[in-house]
Amino acid sequence: MHSISQEGNQLKSNQSWIEKMTLNVFGFFLMAIALLIPTMFASATTIGTNIAVTGTFTVAGVSTISDDFDPDANGTINLGSYGYAWNDIFASGTIYATTLAGNIHSRGIEWTSRTSSDDHEWRSVTYGNGLFVAVSKTSSGDQAMTSPDGINWTTRTTPGSNDWRYVTYGNGMFVAVAADGTGDQSMYSPDGINWKSGNTPSVSQFWRSVAYGDGKFVATAITGTATSRVMTSSDGINWTLQTTPDVNNQWAGVAYGNGLFVAVAADGTGDQVITSPDGITWTARDGAADSDWFGIGYGNGLFVATGTDTIMTSPDGITWTSRTAPSDSSHQWHSVAYHDGLFVSVAKTGTGNRVMTSPDGITWTTRSNPVDNAWHAVTYGNGMFVATANEGTGNRVMTSGHAEVSTIDSNNIHQGTTKFTSDVFVSGTMYMSTSTIINTAGTSTVFAGSSASGYGGRLILENSDGTGCVSLWFDVNLGLSSSTVTCPTQ
């Protein structure tokens, strides 16, 4: 939190008075704003311990926010020349900006179609080492594509023509597993570009999923016997079969979290979960309900499994609870990913709502998707959620969010809660929804910057009708002070 600056002996002598009067000073803030620049706010502004802006807040000069800026704002916030946020900014709505320096965290609410490198059946996508990598079920010798940003994709050469079903990243290696082949049902790449065949057991199984954790890769299959539906690898190259409980379920998904591998099945009765601390010794568990569980993910201390209009969660992978899906229209939720307070799942079926999101894995909301492709996989990386599909024409990728880059072109849209962890420079318009809250912590100013004279520096505000600017600051003796100034330029 930015401490109140002390200037001269007078400031020191008035230190106690300042501390006592700070809350009263902030209480005068709304009154001063209403008198000086009444056109600046579209609706009421509430001043207390926090500053809540529910209308339009316009800043044309140089302003500094020294505490967390945590809005659910309902109006428009126009940051003019420069706006510095030394701490975090969280926004639950849309942000338009021309230049930003900070981390942007997508909320998976609005999605944009992207052009895939080829119209293959892209069954899985992952992120690692600054690169998105997707693998395909179909074609021959070109069944991988990569992208540094989730937007621009390049086809990569792969060994053979296997039916590649899943790809993951761990320990500096991309690893994919296939539904067919003999002894070559895996491939690996340290960079996502150059691929080689791995050494899998000679039995041919339908390997459906693979995860990395605790120094090893673990793959699960939907065919085989109890001695051949799991295989493990310490390097992603050489694989060994492991024995599972005598439950020949279709183990469609596997994830690692909280020191445990957890696999879920697309069939079975009351025994559709198995867990293992090491990928070798497995124990059968009861799921919350019998369903065709396709995908599983882990985040924020919670395992989340998805199926056809079904969701279940578990904090430990052992005890499971059913959750209500947002739709009962036969959505086959095939994949789930997590990042920074948000679970995102994508579906193979549905009409215009093949995405659902949840802040906690319990309460879910459907989101609109740009095209009704069969979305099989979703992952997160570089400020974006990225999903891939096995159908569509030139649009088998969709993204939500924006890459974490220093400069963002004007009119880009960043949906949902957006968090900047370093300086933020906004020369365009920032739009948010509901209320804006700046925490003043009662005894400190949230404004500092341009002239740094007086009590906490100055905040220069431009009238929303463009008629000029007003400079506001807290004077040691006079409290809230203001003057009309020339609007500064960038």
Quick take:
The chain has 490 residues and is mainly beta. The protein has two helices and 43 strands.
The biggest beta sheet reads: 4 strands, antiparallel
For the record, give the distance between the C-alpha atoms at the N and C termini, rounded to a whole number. Answer: 26 Å
Briefly, what CATH class of the largest domain?
Answer: Mainly Beta
Helix count, DSSP H or I runs of 4 or more residues: 2
Structural class: mainly beta
What does this 3D model show about the protein?
The protein has 490 residues and is mainly beta. The chain has two domains: 8-95 and 413-485, no CATH class; 112-401, 6 Propeller (Neuraminidase), CATH 2.120.10. The protein contains two helices and 43 strands. The strands form twelve sheets. It has a four-stranded antiparallel β-sheet with strand order 1-2-39-5. Strand 19 and strand 20 (230-233) form a beta hairpin. Mean pLDDT is 73; it is low at 1-105 and 403-457.
Topology:
Layout: H1 8-13, H2 15-36, E1 45-47, E2 50-53, E3 57-59, E4 62-65, E5 72-73, E6 76-79, E7 82-85, E8 89-91, E9 112-114, E10 122-128, E11 131-136, E12 144-147, E13 154-156, E14 164-170, E15 173-178, E16 186-189, E17 196-197, E18 207-213, E19 216-221, E20 230-233, E21 240-242, E22 251-257, E23 260-265, E24 273-276, E25 283-285, E26 295-299, E27 302-306, E28 311-314, E29 321-323, E30 333-339, E31 342-347, E32 355-358, E33 365-367, E34 375-381, E35 384-389, E36 397-401, E37 418-420, E38 430-431, E39 434-439, E40 447-449, E41 455-462, E42 469-475, E43 479-485
Parallel strand pairs: 3-6, 4-7
Antiparallel strand pairs: 1-2, 2-39, 4-40, 5-39, 6-38, 8-37, 9-36, 10-11, 11-12, 12-13, 14-15, 15-16, 16-17, 18-19, 19-20, 20-21, 22-23, 23-24, 24-25, 26-27, 27-28, 28-29, 30-31, 31-32, 32-33, 34-35, 35-36, 41-42, 42-43
